[in-house]
Task: structure prediction
Amino acid sequence: MLQKKICMVGAFATGKTSLVAQFVRSIFSEKYQTTVGVKIDKKQLIFKTEI
Ligand SMILES: Nc1nc2c(ncn2[C@@H]2O[C@H](COP(=O)(O)OP(=O)(O)OP(=O)(O)O)[C@@H](O)[C@H]2O)c(=O)[nH]1
Ligand SMILES: [Mg+2]
Result:
């Protein structure tokens, strides 16, 4: 298993949490709730490799 960590940083209210929520849970909300500190999400992807 290959594990990678991605760190999202940027100015407030620019859509960081929304982008991650769309990728991880396929959801979007217009409600804005600022992230205090750090929020950690995890997603497992399965790739088929042919040798
Ligand atoms: N229309 C539209 N609104 C978006 C989009 N991405 C984010 N928003 C809205 O912009 C606002 C801020 O989005 P967040 O994802 O919370 O932004 P953030 O960068 O995580 O903000 P902080 O945690 O405060 O740094 C929310 O109201 C979202 O609904 C987008 O692609 N389109
Ligand atoms: Mg956020």
